[in-house]
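Methods: holo model generation. Sequences were used as deposited, without trimming of termini or removal of tags, and paired with ligand SMILES retrieved from the corresponding compound records. Each pair was processed once, and we did not select among multiple samples. The sequence and S-adenosylmethionine SMILES for this entry were:
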Amino acid sequence: MVNRLTSGEGRGLLQSLPPYDERTAMALGERLRADGFAPELVAAALTQARLRQAAVAKFGADAARMLLTQDGLEQATRWEVADHHARRFAAAGVSAVHDLGCGIGADAMAFARAGLGVQAVDADEGVALVAEANLRRWPRATADFRRAEDVRLPSGKDALTVGVWFDPARRTPGVADISGRTRRVFRLDQMSPDWDHVREVAARLPVVGAKLSPSFPHAAVPHTAEAAWTSYAGDVVECALWWGPLARTSGRSAHVLGPRTDALVTEDMAMGAPTEFATMPSQGMYLYEPDRAVIRAGLTGALTNATEGRELASGVGYVASRQDVRLPWAKRYLITAAMPFNTKRLRAVLRDRGVGTLTIKKRGVSIDPQALRRQLRLSGDLEATVVLTRVGSVQVALLVRQL
Ligand SMILES: C[S@@+](CC[C@H](N)C(=O)[O-])C[C@H]1O[C@@H](n2cnc3c(N)ncnc32)[C@H](O)[C@@H]1O
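and the model returned the structure below.
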């Protein structure tokens, strides 16, 4: 079917389809079949149109020229992050990359766009065909149906100019969960290619990178690699391991990306940070909330250092300080009231302030925001944000205004 969609009649059909609309898709399908297109071709083209529309969020305008599968799209690296992967390989001085488990080829396409040769493989035949179609634009990029474990990798001097990229599948092919998606796996030995294979290749070759789950355990970070937790627009999307010249720093790092953000937080920046707050932060102080990638990387200490502040309680991530510091990797709030958490007291303060709309943020406490909202019986015209968290072991409520 991939070939039928990328040549002749199928290609023309796919290009002629209007933007996908669930409400009109059935009628459109009927019309196309009545026009003489084969039912299976119509079904495949409409599926592509639907997936392309869903893919815009990850791939922008390029989605319109890609072939996709549902699983492949869900697992693919979004453009901005894939571009960063490619930049690391380009900066490491390699001329080509082996992409060992390429999926529909989002990372592979980024490597090709960066001017690198790409030898991609995937153990799923249909997916490899899709990747091959997506890579056709680049003469130095190929995708084949093969297992990563069966690829002959370069050795000796040749290995210096060729990188290896892993983005192991963290799903069980063919095993669907309740929502119809393929079931996710969480253990390192369940991913495919498995963690032992990734480590074995990283020990043998000099230029190796691997994309792993954001829940990758700190204890498993190899001492020879940089482990970079990356977020895009606040969502942590991966923990990538970078060996050899691909590493930009040693140990753990956080890479905070967004439409206008590109910031790096490293272990060096977190060195020697003081730990917890001893007393309640007061009104007029600033409250900082690090990007989730910083928290996942265990680098909240970089925030306490940068703001000369202290974390409210070890592990909650919120930092209070008297300093007003702007950082691309942390949200900044002004504390307008601070009190030990007590529903009656909070209700009285919110009523005095005329707060009818409340945003509840919570971390490190087991308060049910919905139940609390009902108990607060809010009425009034104004909006406010409350942060429910802990100072040491004491539950607190902080009214804040985002700056
Ligand atoms: C997470 S996806 C890769 C996504 C890709 N980086 C992208 O951005 O589009 C992982 C892929 O690895 C493939 N795979 C799983 N085990 C493999 C193996 N042993 N060898 C090669 N490919 C494998 C799966 O079929 C799946 O397509």
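Residues 75-77, 100-107, 121-124, 127, 147-149, 167, 169, 192-193 surround S-adenosylmethionine (CB under 6 Å).
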